[in-house]
């Protein structure tokens, strides 16, 4: 399939990262922003929910013990984080328009009961370029975490366009 396997030290079980996804890996001191791990994950979920809603997609959190964001039975956004000494790493993957066939070879996030979907597959709107959606995701992140100016805060975010790697 032309994929590489990488082991990580984050939660979230197995996932796929590739072209057509927005990957956001915030590095934040939870102590500095006054959040615990659960609220941090909830805010990451809200970031993706708000981004999906921009395109009329009614995304929502999963059922109990199902971290991530779903549209119906399809997962549109995955979360896998590591928190060490109160500092976050890893983060989220938001499916804009990835090749969903890659997910057929894994059990995404260890949840066999649900499928995987994408923003493109769930909206009737024509999507802008991925860079625009990446910027919207970062803006949603800033709003959910109360950042008014990311440069003024102790927050580093990285959104990768995996097609340019």
From TrEMBL:
InterPro entries xrefs: aa-tRNA-synth_II/BPL/LPL (IPR045864), BPL_LPL_catalytic (IPR004143), Octanoyltransferase (IPR000544), Octanoyltransferase_CS (IPR020605)
Keywords attached to this entry: Acyltransferase, Transferase
Domain BPL/LPL catalytic: start-end pairs: 1-149
Enzyme class of the recorded protein, top EC level: transferase
Record GO biological process: protein lipoylation
Pfam families to which the protein is assigned, alphabetical: LplA-B_cat (PF21948)
UniProt site positions, description: Lowers pKa of active site Cys: 75
Domain of life: Eukaryota
Binding residue positions for substrate: 10-17, 78-80, 91-93
EC number annotated for this UniProt entry: 2.3.1.181
Record-level Gene Ontology MF annotations: lipoyl(octanoyl) transferase activity
Gene3D superfamilies: Bira Bifunctional Protein, Domain 2
Tagged with keyword Transferase: yes
Active site per database record: 109 (acyl-thioester intermediate)
Family annotation (PANTHER family): OCTANOYLTRANSFERASE, OCTANOYLTRANSFERASE LIP2, MITOCHONDRIAL
Similarity section: Belongs to the LipB family.
NCBIfam families, A to Z: lipB
Protein name: lipoyl(octanoyl) transferase
Species: Papaver nudicaule (Iceland poppy)
Highest classification ranks of the organism: Eukaryota, Viridiplantae, Streptophyta, Embryophyta, Tracheophyta
């Amino acid at each position: 399939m032309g994929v590489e396997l990488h082991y990580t030290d984050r939660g979230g079980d197995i996932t796929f990262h590739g072209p057509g996804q927005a990957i956001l890996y915030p590095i934040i001191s939870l102590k500095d922003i006054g959040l615990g791990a659960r609220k941090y994950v909830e805010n990451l979920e809200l970031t993706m929910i708000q981004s999906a809603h921009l395109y009329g997609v009614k995304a929502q959190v999963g059922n109990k013990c199902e971290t991530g964001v779903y549209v119906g039975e399809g997962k549109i956004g995955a979360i896998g984080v590591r928190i060490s000494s109160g500092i976050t790493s890893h983060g989220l993957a938001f499916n804009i328009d990835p090749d969903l066939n890659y997910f057929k070879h894994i059990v995404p996030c260890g949840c066999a009961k649900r499928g995987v979907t994408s923003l493109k597959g769930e909206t009737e709107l024509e999507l802008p370029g991925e860079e625009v959606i990446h910027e919207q995701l970062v803006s949603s992140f800033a709003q959910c975490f109360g950042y008014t100016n990311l440069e003024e805060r102790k927050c580093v975010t990285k959104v990768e366009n995996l097609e340019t790697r």
